[in-house]
From TrEMBL:
GO terms for cellular component: mitochondrial inner membrane. This is Mitochondrial thiamine pyrophosphate carrier 1. It is found in: Mitochondrion inner membrane. The lineage of its organism: Eukaryota, Fungi, Dikarya, Ascomycota, Pezizomycotina. InterPro entries: EF-hand-dom_pair, EF_Hand_1_Ca_BS, EF_hand_dom, MCP, MCP_dom_sf, MCP_transmembrane. GO terms for molecular function: calcium ion binding. It comes from the Eukaryota. The keyword Transport applies. It is a multi-pass membrane protein. Keywords: Calcium, Membrane, Metal-binding, Mitochondrion, Mitochondrion inner membrane, Repeat, Transmembrane, Transmembrane helix, Transport. Residues 8-43, 77-112, 113-148 form the EF-hand domain. Coiled coil: none annotated. Belongs to the mitochondrial carrier (TC 2.A.29) family.
Length: 497
């Protein structure tokens, strides 16, 4: 096979056996085989079930161990099957497989493979990166496939169920746990990137929410049908707020709380997206199928709401600490870690652990509709775009190849986030005031949800429920857009479904 002489083949198998038989006992039981696969860094090294399948396939006399003779027989039979499969794919008889030949072979075998997945499969086997796969690469990757007749369907299943690319480019085992961790990592990376980019706008929003002054001038301008005057008052308010923040500490003041944001956003975004994917999978099973892409539109909203509530509850204490710290910043006062530590001690002395959960019910009430609207609308828009792209180009056979480009994803994310944020903004304002009560910037205190609502409306009118909405919308569009673009591309990079 492939021009290899019998002597060369015997030497290759002997060398491989000696590397697997790390303790030189002459036989391999389950533990020895697992240890040997780890020594050669084989993709099966952690796949306990497949290792047992391989042991069973090799163990001819059923004594629970593999001898060198049994190993050679298994390798000989498997290599012969792999050679025949290789030749059936190699249509031009060049001794090398290209992507076109592999794609055609999968089609003939009735195996559905997207272009993206085919590219990944090809790159795993093409070790020398020359754009083709020779039999040596084909054989080395598939030699331990635990089946007597390794057809293309079995080959693809072996690849999909046992391999994953890690950060160093090595191939290792993939399972549901790794898949789940991938979603958490993708969500965390997306959250850190977007929140850092929009930190000054978030700081401005919190500052405006903390202000309890009347907005009578703006309201009167609106009532008098003077939109230009109303806009001028609004711009003047934003400009004055920016000046106040700058005076309190310059650039450092604009990014106050960003450290806490970065710390909390990794678990928050990770839990949010991970819980969203898990919720969709669970709902898919409840609907009688296992495909999260086929769940109903209403189910997407429910999954999004559940994910948002779980994420909110997870990081709520850090969120409260951030708001309290931002509202304690004064010109010439403490900043950074010292202020965070001082604020945390002050909160603990005031109410203990309860101080860190002020407004949690309001937060959960607001988070469910926001997350449901945000994630649900984004998912719906993405599905519509995929459907449209496939209709425009009938040659596209898989949803994975019909995903919209990054710009389109950014627009979808921005729209869904801005819409959701606007709908639930009054709830978020009330929750933020509960969290920041008793601070330098927001000295008011409240007995609960009803009290904060009453004081806000009595003192500032209904319009007071929307203080800070402008910078929030200015923040939401780029933040959500960046989040979804980074998340979707991270899923591609991590080979997630």
């Amino acid at each position: 096979m492939d021009g290899e002489s019998q002597a060369q083949r015997d030497a290759r198998l002997r060398s491989l056996w000696e590397r697997l038989d790390t303790k030189k006992k002459g036989t391999l039981d389950y533990e020895a085989l697992k240890r040997g696969l780890g020594a050669v860094n084989h993709p099966l090294k952690d796949a306990d079930g497949l290792i047992q399948d391989m042991l069973t396939a090799c163990d001819i006399d059923r004594d629970g161990k593999i001898s060198y003779d049994e190993f050679c027989r298994f390798c000989t039979a498997t290599e012969k099957e792999l050679w025949q499969l290789f030749q059936s794919i190699d249509q031009d008889r060049s001794g090398r497989l290209d992507k076109g030949e592999l794609s055609s072979a999968f089609e003939r075998a009735g195996v559905t493979v997207s272009k993206t997945r085919l590219d990944r499969f090809f790159s795993y086997i093409d070790k020398d990166r020359d754009g083709t796969i020779d039999f040596g690469e084909w054989r080395d990757f598939l030699l331990f496939i635990p089946t007597n007749e390794p057809g293309l369907s079995a080959v693809l299943s072996y690849y999909q169920n046992t391999t994953k690319l890690n950060s160093e480019g090595d191939v290792h085992l993939s399972d549901e746990a790794v898949q789940g961790l991938g979603y958490f990592l993708a969500g965390g990376l997306a959250g850190v990137t977007s929140r850092t980019a929009t930190a000054p706008l978030d700081r401005l929003k919190v500052y405006l929410i903390a202000q309890t002054g009347s907005t009578k001038e703006t309201v009167q301008a609106v009532k008098s049908a003077k939109p230009v005057s109303a806009a001028q008052h609004g711009v003047r308010t934003l400009w004055t707020a920016c000046q106040d923040l700058w005076a309190a500490g310059g650039v450092r003041s604009l990014f106050a709380g960003n450290g806490l944001n970065v710390i909390k956003v990794m678990p928050e975004s990770s839990v949010k997206f991970g819980a969203y994917e898990a919720s969709k999978r669970a709902i898919a099973k409840l609907e009688g199928h296992d495909d999260p892409k086929r769940i109903k539109g209403s189910s997407s909203f429910v999954a999004g709401g559940i994910a948002g509530m779980i994420a909110q509850a997870t990081v709520y204490p850090l969120d409260t600490l951030k708001f309290q710290m931002q509202c304690e910043i004064v010109k010439g006062g403490e900043h950074g870690t010292r202020l965070i530590w001082h604020t945390a001690k002050k909160m603990w002395a005031r109410n203990g652990v309860v101080a860190f959960y002020k407004g949690l019910p309001m937060g959960l009430i607001g988070m469910f509709p926001y997350a449901a609207i945000d994630l649900g609308i984004f998912d719906t828009l993405k599905k519509r775009a995929i459907k449209r792209n496939r209709a425009r180009n009938p040659s596209i056979k898989h949803d994975e190849d019909a995903l919209p480009n990054n710009f389109s994803l950014a627009l979808m994310g921005g729209f869904s986030g801005a819409f959701g944020a606007s709908i639930v903004y009054p709830l978020n304002l009330l929750r933020t005031r509960l969290q920041s009560q008793g601070t330098f910037s927001h000295p008011r205190t409240y007995t609960g949800i009803v009290d904060v609502t009453r004081q806000t409306i009595q003192g500032e009118g209904v319009r007071g429920l929307f203080k800070g909405l402008t910078p929030n919308l200015l923040k939401v569009v780029p933040a959500v857009s960046i989040t979804y673009v980074v998340y979707e591309n991270s899923k591609k990079f991590l080979h997630l479904q």
